[in-house]
Specification:
With 479 residues, the protein is an alpha/beta fold. The chain has 18 helices and 20 strands. The longest helix is centred in the middle third of the chain and has 22 residues. It starts with a strand and ends with a helix.
């Protein structure tokens, strides 16, 4: 787990924050937010909020009272305590890509399978820069739809010893996630004391929380499992084309979701979510790694801190169809502001390709390299007598070189970060080695990593109980 203690890059003035604050208040009072869930509507109605059909018109002060109940920081346990994480403050936690139906390995783009899912879990376990494989790293399209969540949770729990994301397709899937987490961690009380999963609840932007997401929200909040309340905003489609209008909508949507979560269970940990980018106004296709999304990300970090909430945003996002130069620079365009903003929970840190439709093995490696580079870059510079190296100047004198100096010899093994993916060989040696570009080197790295993977140990009795649960529930679900 990485701690980013570098200064935050905040671009909103006090006046700008005040205008955004007025903007979200105007939306929730005059336009309202739709909740497609009868339990949610009844809760808002009982709390004195105006409800017309499925639209709730919220008192901003009521919303802020609920938001204030959410913790600003919290822990999430992993079955290996060394991999437990802290969400909030200066902590940054990284997870793999989430949700693609397709997978790319080399030149082949195809439907994702359960074995692909397991391999991404193995890679996530193996790369130390990742704190979690996440949740739906890819859709395992060769497994039954009604029960595949059981296989995915089981893989996350056994092939990794890191924390994982819960399934949110339905209340039933959420209940299964909670039950399996309880088995893994010693009972429901244990996971209510310290949560074991994080689940993403997306807003159906603009200004609508749908029934399936809200059903899952009720289950996770009741079990005190953290939820990421995330507006899904592609400017020009799900929000207006201007960044300020999109930020205002994002605040209204996220805070309305946070308010409901606190009504379900006061003090339930939540994360201010943000998925904010643009569309190509010629084609309507989503675009990623854009300057607008970077600015929105920086603003989101400042806004979340303004409300005292941890936040989720960023990742290695790209519109590119392959792991090429475009994929690299677009991912970096999103990941740099992710660090500058001090994002607490970073989904899609590794493997995102083709607008999120594809989980790529090569891009997974490239992204892990980017994250590792930035983690080294965002470590404060230490300046002391040793690093000033005055004795080295005395030894070398004028016009010499420092290659053999005592100061260099004592530090040369670890004085500079060495990228695991990059090549710094001269042209002749690179040619003799096969003229491998970054993509080809990434292929070799992920394949070797899978060859060397060792499954983390798990108690046999717990694993057997999880297996029994999966078999029983699969039969009950008709699969």
């Amino acid at each position: 787990m990485f701690r980013n203690v570098m200064p935050r890059y905040e671009i909103l003035s006090a006046d700008a924050l005040d205008q955004l604050d007025q903007g979200w208040r105007r939306i929730v009072t005059q336009v309202g937010v739709e909740f497609s869930n009868d339990r949610a509507l009844e809760m808002f109605r009982a709390a004195g909020q105006k409800v017309e059909e499925r639209t709730v018109f919220l008192d901003p002060e009521f919303v802020l009272e609920q938001v204030a109940k959410a913790p600003s920081e919290f822990d999430v346990q992993a079955r290996n305590p060394a991999n437990s994480v802290h969400i909030g403050g200066d902590h940054m936690v990284f997870g793999a890509v989430y949700g693609p139906p397709f997978v790319r390995a080399g030149d082949l783009r195809r439907d994702g399978t359960m074995e692909d899912f397991r391999n991404f879990c193995r890679l996530s376990q193996s790369f130390g820069v990742l704190d979690s494989a996440g949740g739906v790293v890819n859709e395992p399209n060769d497994t039954p739809l009604d029960s595949r969540h059981l296989d995915m949770i089981f893989a996350l729990q056994t092939l990794t010893d890191k924390f994982y994301m819960g399934n949110v397709v339905s209340a039933v899937n959420a209940q299964d996630t909670i039950a399996m987490s309880a088995i893994l961690h010693g009972g429901r009380k244990a996971i209510e004391r310290t949560p074991a999963s994080i689940s993403i609840i997306n807003c159906n932007s603009p200004l609508r929380w749908d029934d399936r997401m809200l059903d899952a929200l009720f289950e996770y909040c009741a079990a005190a499992q953290p939820v990421v309340l995330t507006p899904f905003l592609l400017m020009g489609a799900m929000s207006p084309v201007t960044i300020p209008a999109t930020l205002v909508q994002q605040i209204a949507e996220a805070l309305s979701g946070v308010a409901l979560a606190q009504m379900i269970r006061p003090g339930c940990p939540v994360i201010f979510g943000s998925f904010l980018s643009t569309i190509d106004m010629k084609t309507g296709s989503p675009t990623f790694g854009t300057p607008e999304s970077a600015i929105g990300l920086l603003c989101t970090g400042q806004i979340a801190r303004y409300f005292g909430l941890p936040f989720r945003s960023g990742g290695g996002l790209t519109s590119s169809q392959v792991a090429d130069a475009q994929a690299g620079y677009e991912a970096l365009m999103t990941m740099v502001p992710t660090f500058l903003a001090g994002t607490n929970w970073v989904m899609h840190s590794a493997g995102w390709l083709d607008g999120g439709l594809v989980a790529s093995f090569e891009k997974f490696v490239v992204d892990c390299q980017i994250v590792e580079l930035l983690q080294h870059q965002f470590v404060p510079l230490e300046i002391d007598e040793g690093s000033l190296a005055f004795d080295a100047h005395v030894e070398v004198g004028h016009g010499g070189h420092f290659l053999g100096a005592a100061h260099t010899m004592a530090r040369f093994r670890d004085c500079f970060y060495r990228p695991f993916l990059s090549s710094s060989e001269n042209f002749e040696r690179w040619t003799r080695g096969g003229s491998l570009d970054a993509n080809a080197r990434a292929t070799a790295i992920y394949q070797k990593t899978l060859e060397d993977y060792v499954e983390p140990p798990i108690d046999d009795a717990i694993k057997a109980e999880l297996e029994d649960y999966v078999v029983r529930r699969r039969a009950e679900l008709g699969d």
